[in-house]
Amino acid sequence: MKSKITLKELAKLLNVSVSTVSxxxxxxxxxxxxxxxxxKELAKLxxxxxxPVAVNLKKSKTGTVGVVIPNISNSFFARVLSGIEAEAxxxxxxxxxxxSNESYGREKQICDLLTAGFVDGVxxxxxxxxxxKRDYDHLFNLVEYDIPVxxxxxxxxxxxxxxxxxxxxxxxxxxxxxxxxKGLKKIGIASAIHHLGVGKSRIQGYESALSKTEKPFIAAxxxxxxxxxxxxxxxxxxxxEALLCTDFESSLMAARIAYENDLxxxxxxxxxxxxxxxxxxxxxxxxxxxxxxxxxxxxxALQLLQNRLDGRSTPGKFEEVIIETTIVHLExxxx
Length: 335
Prior knowledge:
The strands form two sheets. Strands 2-1-3-4-5-11 form a six-stranded parallel beta sheet, with helices on both faces. The longest helix has 16 residues, at 75-90. It has helices at 7-14, 18-25, 33-45, 52-57, 75-90, 104-114, 128-133, 137-144, 168-181, 197-209, 224-237, 248-260, 277-280, 294-309, and strands at 64-69, 94-99, 121-124, 149-152, 162-166, 187-191, 217-220, 242-245, 270-273, 288-291, 320-323, 326-328. It folds into three domains: 7-45, no CATH class; 63-165 and 294-323, Response regulator (Rossmann fold), CATH 3.40.50.2300; 168-292 and 327-333, Rossmann fold, CATH 3.40.50. It is elongated, with a radius of gyration of 23 Å. The chain is an alpha/beta fold.
């Protein structure tokens, strides 16, 4: 029995990419005649018809791009947006900002809205809830509407899109290696984002830097009360000498717990976190941190999108740009 089907579903049945299906249906010379025939036969069998709104969108430009931000209270994303805005001005592009508040439902609503023709392209960092659900159909819908998508920061999603992120794994591999090179034996890690792709990468970098004989000390939970107990156990019971923190929340929490337990930083505990420069420098003692260069990340994301809009990118081939991080040593990691 014939039924409506999406590009993503066709691609899954044929075991090819969404981009390949789209090109085949549009008679792209990049696709072999044999593959094109298979795609068209299956599309006909399932009565596939391109969305007329999507077809019309290809013919017009709005001069506007949509930026989806997961959490505006996080200064990192505010600085990414600053980079996006600055780069957009170079091309006379208007930026419309949407905030998902780490909600899958809100993110889906935003993506549905963006398919209505308001924007020429989309920059998105997917929400925490979307990553937990691993449901990315709303992102594939943007692709089906032929709207260029650039994913930034949270890029561990397999969709046909350009991506720009930070080398999270390498950053903590190097940070762990730094403390090891100074002779520290008990090095721990704390995370409130262990369930997200960036959190997993940072923990992986930490674990990779340890030898097979070295014990990992990990405190991870998305529940603040639980995380606080686990960090306290690392500092008091396990007596870690240095602690790496994967995010803003765990960084501040670790500093507070050390203070409450009369642990002197950096004498009793070396501390390093993923935290903004604006906050790190004003703590007492100042907190060493991983600089992610968010403005560069934002400007690069917009540039990738502009290349796609201008036709300077190769159709069907997508770029992944990784921004190098920098370890900034302040008082908390003094040896």
